[in-house]
């Protein structure tokens, strides 16, 4: 009656529903491809590396034979690197975030800094390597040292920390800020005693994720001259150093198959460290889940 | 005043205490005045970083172009620095080839994942799958490179005869997988911010979920999706370790994915690790390549930001 | 004049409790013509939009002054001008003068922090810090330099008692203030404001987010507090204004239409618009 052909229409509806279901399946399969890849990767590296992963591997320096090689220098190097990156990047990053969110007037300059930070986050890591090479290694004459590598990495993760800290600070409800100002607290007192404590879970979570990025980065450190084989631990900021990804890269490049297993074992150590850091981040997030 | 002090023990007069403290506190008060200056300096570091990057790349590139013609550099088809050939086209095509393969892998898979997560998956499913997918983005690229070289390439050899040990195909695919979460996650965010009322309107008219997704959600979230893709492509262009490890180091002007190639990034690594001496032409060429790479990615990032800014204004 | 006032205040504060009644009497007599705030020709703009027009108003000491008016008429804006919280909105411009105890609050001589130490504020929505109840109350004294635990303990107890919530929370001072009910949170917020013993307490619709029983408690509390503090309370509830205030100001579209003794204003408004409003004809 209404001009719609009932019979044909039913057919069409069935067709549309079938198409919907077929594509739903396709979408689901597509989603799983990434997950399958992840599972394959983890499984494969686990089976390859587990045989070489023992306490000797963790406590040994590099060696010419696969059985004797270890990741000690890289593990300690990575930890020392983080010990430089964390204080530098957190101070600068949280400082920048506080400045942008609480002090800066919302004018063109602030917007410029903001866009600049966004763009920095998109600069390929290897370009940071070039910056570090010119600025830290040559101009400041730091050479191929732990300090040069650490500072380069600090700049690399800085935008990530700034953005995370900004978001955390922004999500602090304004009514508790007002409460603080209303009691005669100064700006800095309000920041230190109200805003930062409330924002700290978010800041920490973002920072840990940024630091885990620093732990996994390879390319910029190749450029600023991390050593591929190191037989002593760095004993000062101006020592030579290596980190886990560099050692893994080095092992990956060797033709004999055994070195692949060594590389896989190295990857396992790296992934375990990353897993640990992420677990801490998740723990912090859950523990401090805010109640507003 | 004396009376106030006397009474302090039993009956506290907070305002008097505050008044006294206020007088004493002037030192810390002065220190507090320095805080904004310090915070400003922190913020200045990121601006200086950008300036440093621009300055570094520009200065060394200019030195490079004083000995090598910029025209020859951008039109030359042979990249062989150790024999004095500085034609960057092979590195650019190498980069484009990897990016193309990665895009072919990542855009459909990423988008379909986003549609699934945003339009079909239950809240619970989404809460499990999305973070798991994001784990992919957290895996160090050296690990991907290792996996591409030792697993994906041998696997592909069974399917693609004549595939080299080092080849663009395997590296490109793995780069693609790496950027899936970026597209999936950001696109899903964009789709999620499409108001539910739009969906309900279409569903109430008898549309299927598919039709809602395609005809309502995708168009509404279009710019957000495009921005995420552009950003992901920019990541692919700048990706280094996967291509260094799995794509080889043979700068070749080719679009044959089975062959070994070299990307802009991979050359920078090669140039910096070889026995390149400070101040040599090769040393400066690294920066010219770096500058080229930087311009590519910067343009992509700005494009992405431009698109997503427009997107924000829509709502 | 000014020094005299301050001297008087110190004496009030230091005198011990038993005096309060008598003290109060003398005060209320003396306070008849004593104003905490004298507002003259106050205009305020948010950017280009004027929100307050030529306000002239003397706020009496140790009284409850209610501000009523339809929503959007500028009540909150006016209240926040008194402790300069309104300046948190960067586009705000003001003209005119506000004297607090005879001194210009906008003058460079005095810091906003100093002003807000004397002029406390309680907000519409309870807004405790995400800290323990104890730390919430101790916040003010601490930022102003009080560090001794014993002193803080005393202040916390006294403030909570004054805010009539001590008995409810004394066993859970270390718990997060978020765990309290809305009404309790609001009284903790009042206690927090009391902890630095201000002269004036500004309250912006303090009961609008509360249930009737909590509202009643806060209203009783306000009655109690006016013995020691001057209170300015914004309310959209005319019965509340009539119940608890000594004087009432009626605002409309950014103008102060009428300001009079509460009894007088509600029974015998002089302005037609006041009459319309209190008889429920608009708002
Ligand atoms: N932060 C602000 N920015 C711009 N205009 C504002 C702001 N706050 C309030 N206003 C405007 O000022 C007027 C008075 O608002 P307000 O003081 O909140 O009224 P009330 O508390 O009486 O409901 C309103 O027109 C409101 O839109
Ligand atoms: Mg209001």
TrEMBL record, chain A:
GO cellular component, one term: plasma membrane
Subcellular location: Cell membrane
Membrane among keywords: yes
Residue ranges annotated for the ABC transmembrane type-1 domain, each copy included: 75-280
Keyword Transmembrane helix: yes
Any GO MF annotation of the entry: phosphate transmembrane transporter activity
CDD domains, per database record: TM_PBP2
InterPro entries in UniProt: MetI-like, MetI-like_sf, Phosphate_PstA
GO biological process: phosphate ion transmembrane transport
Domain of life: Bacteria
Membrane topology field: Multi-pass membrane protein
Chain segments annotated as coiled-coil in the UniProt record: none
Bilayer-spanning residue ranges: 21-46, 71-100, 120-140, 146-169, 190-211, 259-284
A Pfam family that the UniProt record links to this protein: BPD_transp_1
Annotated keywords: Cell membrane, Membrane, Transmembrane, Transmembrane helix, Transport
Entry's family note: Belongs to the binding-protein-dependent transport system permease family. CysTW subfamily.
Stated name of the protein: Phosphate transport system permease protein PstA
Organism encoding this protein: Thalassobacillus cyri
Automatic annotation (TrEMBL), chain B:
Presence of keyword Transport: yes
Cellular component terms (Gene Ontology): plasma membrane
Gene Ontology BP term (one): phosphate ion transport
InterPro entries: MetI-like, MetI-like_sf, Phosphate_PstC
Record has Endoplasmic reticulum as a keyword: no
Pfam families for the chain: BPD_transp_1
Top-rank taxon: Bacteria
Major location (coarse): membrane
Ranges of residues in domain ABC transmembrane type-1: 92-304
Similarity comment: family membership: Belongs to the binding-protein-dependent transport system permease family. CysTW subfamily.
Free-text function comment from the UniProt entry: Part of the binding-protein-dependent transport system for phosphate; probably responsible for the translocation of the substrate across the membrane.
The protein, known as: Phosphate transport system permease protein
Automatic annotation (TrEMBL), chain C:
GO cellular component: plasma membrane
Pfam families, sorted: ABC_tran
Coiled coil (UniProt feature): none
Subcellular location: Cell inner membrane
Membrane topology: Peripheral membrane protein
ABC transporter domain residues: 37-278
UniProt-listed SUPFAM superfamilies: P-loop containing nucleoside triphosphate hydrolases
Gene Ontology terms for molecular function: ATP binding; ATP hydrolysis activity; phosphate transmembrane transporter activity
PROSITE patterns per UniProt: ABC_TRANSPORTER_1 (PS00211), ABC_TRANSPORTER_2 (PS50893)
Keyword entries, A-Z: ATP-binding, Cell membrane, Membrane, Nucleotide-binding, Phosphate transport, Translocase, Transport
CDD domains: ABC_PstB_phosphate_transporter (cd03260)
InterPro entries found in the cross-reference section: AAA+_ATPase, ABC_transporter-like_ATP-bd, ABC_transporter-like_CS, P-loop_NTPase, PstB-like
Gene Ontology biological process terms in this record: phosphate ion transmembrane transport
SMART domains attached to this UniProt entry: AAA
General function of this protein: Part of the ABC transporter complex PstSACB involved in phosphate import. Responsible for energy coupling to the transport system.
Protein name: Phosphate transport system ATP-binding protein
Organism: Thalassobacillus cyri
């Amino acid at each position: 009656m209404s001009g719609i052909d009932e019979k044909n229409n039913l057919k069409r509806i069935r067709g549309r529903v079938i198409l919907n279901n077929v594509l739903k399946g396709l979408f689901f399969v597509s989603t799983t491809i990434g997950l399958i890849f992840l599972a394959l990767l983890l499984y494969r590296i686990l089976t390859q590396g587990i045989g070489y992963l023992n306490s000797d591997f963790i406590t040994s320096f590099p060696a010419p034979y696969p059985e004797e090689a270890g990741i000690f220098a890289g593990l300690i190097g990575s930890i020392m690197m983080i010990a430089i990156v964390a204080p530098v990047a957190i101070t600068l990053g949280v400082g920048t975030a506080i400045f942008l969110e609480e002090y800066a007037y919302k004018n063109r300059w602030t917007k410029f800094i903001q866009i600049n930070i966004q763009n920095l986050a998109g600069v390929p890591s290897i370009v940071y390597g070039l910056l570090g090479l010119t600025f830290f290694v040559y101009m400041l004459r730091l050479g191929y040292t732990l300090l040069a590598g650490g500072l380069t990495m600090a700049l690399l993760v800085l935008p990530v920390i700034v953005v995370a800290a900004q978001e955390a600070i922004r999500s602090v409800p304004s009514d508790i800020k007002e409460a603080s100002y209303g009691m005669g607290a100064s700006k800095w007192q309000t920041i230190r005693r109200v805003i930062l404590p409330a924002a700290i879970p978010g800041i920490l979570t973002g920072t840990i994720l940024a630091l885990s990025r620093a732990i996994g980065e390879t390319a910029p450190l190749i450029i600023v001259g991390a050593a591929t084989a190191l037989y002593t631990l760095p004993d000062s900021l101006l020592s030579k150093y290596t980190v886990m990804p560099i050692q893994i890269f080095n092992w990956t490049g060797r033709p004999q198959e055994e070195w692949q297993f060594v590389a896989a074992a190295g990857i396992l150590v790296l992934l375990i460290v990353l897993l640990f850091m992420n677990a801490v981040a998740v723990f912090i997030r859950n523990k401090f889940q805010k109640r507003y | 005043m004396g009376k106030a002090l006397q009474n302090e023990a039993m009956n506290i007069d907070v305002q008097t205490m505050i008044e006294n403290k206020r007088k004493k506190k002037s030192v810390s008060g002065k220190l507090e005045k320095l805080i904004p200056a310090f915070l400003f300096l922190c913020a200045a570091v990121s601006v200086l970083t950008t300036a440093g990057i621009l300055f570094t790349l520009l200065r060394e590139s200019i030195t490079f172009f004083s000995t090598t013609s910029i025209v020859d550099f951008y039109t030359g088809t042979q990249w062989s620095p150790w024999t004095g050939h500085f034609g960057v086209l092979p590195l650019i095509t190498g980069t484009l080839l990897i990016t193309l393969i990665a895009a072919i892998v990542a855009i459909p898979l990423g988008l379909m994942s986003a549609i699934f997560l945003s339009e079909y998956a239950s809240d619970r499913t989404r809460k499990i799958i999305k973070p798991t997918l994001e784990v992919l983005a957290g895996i160090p690229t050296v690990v991907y490179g290792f996996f591409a070289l030792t697993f994906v390439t041998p696997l592909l050899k069974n399917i693609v005869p004549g595939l080299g040990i080092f080849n663009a195909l395997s590296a490109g695919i793995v780069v693609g997988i790496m950027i899936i979460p970026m597209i999936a996650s950001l696109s899903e965010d964009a789709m999620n911010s499409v108001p539910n009322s739009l969906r309900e309107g279409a569903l109430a008219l008898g549309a299927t979920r598919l039709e809602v997704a395609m005809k309502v959600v995708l168009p509404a979230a279009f710019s957000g999706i495009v921005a995420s893709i552009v950003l992901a492509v920019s990541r692919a262009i700048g990706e280094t370790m996967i291509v260094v490890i799995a794509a080889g180091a043979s700068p070749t002007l080719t679009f044959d994915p089975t062959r070994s190639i070299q990307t802009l990034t991979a050359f920078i690594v090669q140039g910096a690790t070889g026995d390149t001496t400070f101040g040599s032409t090769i040393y400066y060429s690294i920066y010219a390549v770096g500058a080229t790479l930087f311009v590519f990615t910067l343009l992509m990032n700005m494009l992405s930001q431009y698109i997503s800014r427009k997107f924000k204004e829509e709502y | 004049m000014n020094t005299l006032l301050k001297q008087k205040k110190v004496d009030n504060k230091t005198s011990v409790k038993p005096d309060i009644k008598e003290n109060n009497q003398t005060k209320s007599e003396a306070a008849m013509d004593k104003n905490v705030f004298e507002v003259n020709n106050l205009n305020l703009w948010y950017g280009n939009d004027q929100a307050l027009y030529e306000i002239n108003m003397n706020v009496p000491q140790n009284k409850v002054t209610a501000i009523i008016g339809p929503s959007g008429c500028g009540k909150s804006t006016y209240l926040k001008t008194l402790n300069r919280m309104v300046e948190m909105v960067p586009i705000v411009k003001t003209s005119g003068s506000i004297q607090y105890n005879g001194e210009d609050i906008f003058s460079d001589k005095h810091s906003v922090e100093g002003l807000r130490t004397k002029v406390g504020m309680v907000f519409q929505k309870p807004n405790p810090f995400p800290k323990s109840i104890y730390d919430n109350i101790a916040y003010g004294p601490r930022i102003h330099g009080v560090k001794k635990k014993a002193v803080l303990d005393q202040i916390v107890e006294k403030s909570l008692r004054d805010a009539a919530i001590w008995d409810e929370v004394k066993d859970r001072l270390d718990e997060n203030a978020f765990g309290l009910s809305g009404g309790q949170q609001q009284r903790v917020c009042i206690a927090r404001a009391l902890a630095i013993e201000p002269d004036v307490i500004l309250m912006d619709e303090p009961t609008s987010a509360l249930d009737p029983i909590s509202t009643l408690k806060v209203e009783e509390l306000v009655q109690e507090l006016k013995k020691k503090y001057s209170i300015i309370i914004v309310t959209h509830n005319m019965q509340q204004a009539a119940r608890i205030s000594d004087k009432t100001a009626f605002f409309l579209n950014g103008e102060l239409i009428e300001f009079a003794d509460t009894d007088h204003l509600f029974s015998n408004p002089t302005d037609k618009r006041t009459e319309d409003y209190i008889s429920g004809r608009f708002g």
